[in-house]
Design brief:
5 helices, about 150 residues, alpha/beta, three-stranded parallel beta sheet, 2 domains
């Protein structure tokens, strides 16, 4: 497997696409081969990105009571997880958090929320107001993860 991993590394560095079958073989790495795969992936990253690290920060701007029952998510109303539950964070608090993140050299500030199926209406209006406030403040690039659309 080690030789195959190195062959795929060389292919990636030459900017050649790996086939579906080659990708499937790589994800079957086990035991010590996983370390070889991680090292190889790091060399590919180094080739294309160098040593630069880009920092970002996120704010969980609405926590808990999500109406969906995703088995992996602790924020679902269906799970008895002991998490803080709160409504959508204010624009002022998000701007303050973005400013603090920028002070720690974050290039981006992401707003994440616990909901599903965001549609036109009060929730969308509220999150847009917050994103506009963050963009206007200009401390960092503003990103968002606003749940899935149904």
């Amino acid at each position: 497997m080690r030789n195959f991993i190195r062959k795929m590394e060389d292919k990636a560095i030459k900017n050649e696409r790996l086939s579906y079958e080659e990708g499937c073989r790589l994800i079957q790495a086990e035991g010590p081969d996983i370390i070889d795969l991680i090292s190889s992936a790091n060399r590919v990253r180094q080739h294309f990105c160098g040593d630069q690290v880009n920092l970002c920060s996120i704010s969980n701007a609405k926590s808990g009571n999500c109406s969906e029952n995703c088995s992996f998510c602790s924020q679902s109303a269906y799970h008895g997880t002991a998490i803080d539950t709160y409504p959508l964070t204010s624009s002022e608090k998000l701007v303050s958090e973005a400013k603090a993140a920028a002070g720690h050299n974050a290039e981006a500030f992401g707003v994440v929320v616990a909901w599903w199926g965001l549609r036109e209406g009060p929730d969308l209006d509220a999150i847009l107001e917050r994103i506009r406030a963050l963009s206007a403040a200009g401390h960092t690039r503003t990103d968002a993860s606003l749940g899935s659309q149904r």
